[in-house]
Task: inverse folding
């Protein structure tokens, strides 16, 4: 079995490239040279016998094979890291580990980029992230805190609101430059729209957006369709269309100017991200410290 698997280090660097959308930034994160990262990715591609990155796109994007490997490595290594940390915690006899479950988009674009700040403030506390590729995240076995999107009225516990969501059409600066100013909903509907399907039932798409603006009869059946939000974001970053940007995911990408607002008509939703913990966490506990930090971070999440 082991000879069929690539090294953990190569998967770690691959994950860094996926999250940073840049070999240069991945190298800086890992503390190695850019050429070392590039060589590791090429060795990984040779091992799986498939291209993982579309190097012709800017910013760098995943191929279909890369998407499959990224999803599998996040799910498998996330579970493995959780078990390892549980064993370490038992061996130390302490509880200096916090395990978080949330959806993949929130983990990739909101939580993971901020965890370095938590580690800097609390270097003795390890954080594990269990990312759900589909469906609503919950308190899985071994997790301390769950973060879930919706209206908060779930039957599996007491969920507390972190922040409400906002959606607005977004695209790459390059796409908007080619398309020109989008001045109305009808003109927006004629753009190459990026759809996300196969998510939770309460996920909102273009039909909801146009209906909220009073344009429910505008056609939105064309465009590109993806089964998860991470793929859609990558496509928007490549300049291939306009997608609905969610505050939790797109806020930082807009702030860094990797994406831009395509049509300045945001819809503020009644739903949002909610949090639930195993037990009521005391302020001085590891989970309690993470909860306090998390609430501070979400209060600073940029809105559109």
Result:
């Amino acid at each position: 079995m082991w000879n069929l698997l690539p090294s953990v280090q190569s998967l770690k660097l691959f994950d860094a490239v996926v999250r940073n959308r840049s070999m240069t930034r991945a190298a800086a994160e890992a503390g190695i040279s850019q050429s070392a990262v590039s060589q590791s990715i090429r060795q990984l591609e040779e091992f799986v016998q498939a291209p993982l990155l579309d190097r012709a796109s800017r910013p760098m994007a995943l191929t279909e094979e890369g998407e499959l490997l990224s999803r599998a490595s996040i799910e498998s290594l996330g579970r493995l890291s959780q078990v390892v940390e549980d064993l370490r915690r038992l061996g130390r006899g302490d509880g200096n580990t916090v395990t978080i479950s949330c959806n993949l988009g929130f983990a990739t674009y909101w939580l993971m980029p901020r965890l370095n700040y938590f580690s800097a403030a609390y270097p003795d506390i390890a954080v594990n992230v269990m990312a759900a590729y589909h469906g609503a995240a919950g308190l899985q076995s071994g997790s301390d805190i769950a973060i879930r999107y919706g209206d908060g009225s779930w039957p599996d516990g007491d969920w507390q609101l972190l922040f409400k969501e906002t959606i607005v059409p977004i695209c790459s600066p390059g796409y908007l430059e080619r398309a020109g100013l989008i001045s109305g909903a009808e003109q927006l509907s004629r753009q190459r729209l990026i759809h996300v399907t196969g998510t939770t039932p309460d996920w909102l798409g273009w039909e909801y957006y146009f209906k909220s603006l009073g344009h429910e009869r505008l056609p939105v059946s064309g465009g590109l369709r993806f089964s998860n939000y991470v793929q859609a974001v990558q496509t928007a970053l490549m300049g291939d269309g306009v997608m609905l940007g969610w505050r939790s995911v797109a806020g930082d990408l807009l702030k860094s100017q990797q994406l831009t607002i395509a049509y300045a008509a945001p819809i503020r939703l009644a739903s949002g991200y909610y949090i639930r913990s195993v037990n009521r966490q005391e302020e001085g506990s590891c989970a309690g410290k993470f909860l306090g930090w998390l609430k501070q971070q979400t209060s600073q999440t940029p809105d559109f």
